[in-house]
Amino acid sequence: MKRKETGLILLFLIIIIIVIFVFYYPPTSSEVNNTQNHSINQINASLSTPFQLKINQTAVLESGNIRITLLNITEDSRCPEGAVCVWAGQVKALFLLEVNQSNQEIFNLTLNFNETQSQKTSLGYMIKILKVEPYPKANRNKNLNNYEVTLVITPQTSS
After folding, report:
1. Segments in 25-106 forming alpha helices (H)
2. Host H or E run for residue 156
3. Which CA distances in Å does 67 have to 38, 54, 115, 159?
4. In this structure, are residues 132 and 93 in contact, taking their beta carbons and an 8 Å threshold?
5. CA distances (Å), 146 to each of 44, 68, 135, 143, in order?
6. Could you tell me the sign of the dihedral formed by the alpha carbons of 35, 40, 41, 42, in that order?
7. Are 132 and 153 in contact (CB under 8 A)?
8. Looking at residue 101, what is its pLDDT?
9. Highest-confidence segment of 4-13, 32-41, 87-96
10. Which helix (H) or strand (E) holds 23?
């Protein structure tokens, strides 16, 4: 019986050592570089002043209290230059808005002929998409890395 208990204790110690190495191992250089790249992908912006974001880029406003990140372009069905289309199409952008590091919301904004879809009130601010570039061209592939969205954020006015 003593031998079985010693074996179980040894097995338990080995498991604890493995867990310690897995969870407390220092970060690799690529993990450090990813953290540094995140800070490089930030821009400073001001309320009520238009600014541009690329995919995975974050704008920091009001001393860091407001952060908005362009996560993705989820749709671009705008009629390409040089093509004949039945409708003008639209472009949708996915954003993450963070206010005071505790409140956040993920939402889409759509730029098309219907202006009400191009703006959203969230967490006390009105976010409006003004422009998405580049405009598609016929016979040309879309590259998400080239997209740049112009938006403006203003404090929500009380009615």
Report:
1. 29-40
2. none
3. 13, 14, 23, 25
4. yes
5. 20, 19, 10, 6
6. positive
7. no
8. 86
9. 87-96
10. helix 2-24
| Residue whose token pair is 């490089």 | 40
Contact assessment for residue 103 and residue 85, using Cβ atoms and an 8 Å cutoff: no
> What's the CA angle centered on 97, arms 115 and 72, to 5 degrees?
70
Other Cβ atoms within 10 Å of 120 Cβ, number: 18
Judge whether 55 and 70 are in contact, CB under 8 Å. Answer: yes
**For the whole model, what pTM was predicted?**
0.71
DSSP helix/strand/coil, 97:
strand
Asked whether the CA dihedral 117, 119, 91, 112 is positive or negative, the reply is positive
Burial class (CB in 10 A: 0-12, 13-18, 19+), 21: exposed
Lowest mean pLDDT: which of 35-49, 84-98, 111-125?
A: 35-49
